Amino acid sequence: MKKKYKHTKQIITILNNIYNNPTTDLIHNSPYQLLIATILSAQCTDKQVNAITPQLFTTYSNPHSLANANTEEIENIIHSTGFYHNKAKNIIGCANGLIENYSGEVPLVMEDLVTLSGVGRKTANCILSVYGETVGIVVDTHVIRLSNLLGFTKSKNAIKIEEELMEIIDKKD
User: Fold this and answer.
1) How confident is the model at residue 3, as a pLDDT?
2) Which of 76, 106, 118, 159 could potentially form a cystine with 31 if both were Cys, beta carbons 3.0 to 4.6 Å apart?
3) Is 140 labeled as catalytic in the residue annotation?
4) Which of 9, 46, 112, 140 is catalytic?
């Protein structure tokens, strides 16, 4: 570990003591549900996403039903999450990508996940941290802010921050 980051281990220990089994606050029962919920969580609270996903997942319980959904019906369900036009397009596109390329199953490989509509590294890392092998760090606005505040990075670029954090934080953490 770089000398500059000697306090990293201490910070990780403190965080592990406080959050000994971290998980997402998004309510889900499958990789498909977590994938769609994570796409919907962009610029929205997990609480708001959790308020609308029961109806969404009851009506569209799998990628096949979502891929064939009426865009306006999806927009009506997800309206309160904001950016609902784009999110509806992305989750329908994602469902189609799952069907066309992965037999309707959520792939648990970074390179495959990021090919899906609406999925970037942050979303892919979230899915993999719960259902696959962790390969990176979920970097959201909070991680960006705290990483800068703690002096781990000076960047505002999520991908660069993820790379820099992966250099100083053990994979198991």
Assistant:
1) 43
2) 106
3) yes
4) 140
The alpha carbon of 157 is separated from its chain's Cα centroid by a whole number of angstroms, namely: 17
- Containing 47, the helix (H) or strand (E) segment is helix 46-59
**161 in Cβ contact with 144 (< 8 Å):** yes
Q: Among residues 89, 128, 121, 88, which one has the least CA distance to residue 106? A: 128
Coil/strand/helix, residue 113: helix
Distance CA 100, CA 73 (A): 22
What is the rounded distance in angstroms from the CA atom of residue 24 to the CA atom of residue 97?
24
Q: What's the domain range around 67?
A: 31-131
Q: Is 122 a catalytic residue?
A: yes
Active-site residue, selected from the candidate residues 122, 154, 170, 171 = 122
Averaged over 141-153, what is the pLDDT?
Answer: 91
Whether residue 118 lies inside any domain: the answer is: yes
**Pair 64, 92 in one domain:** yes
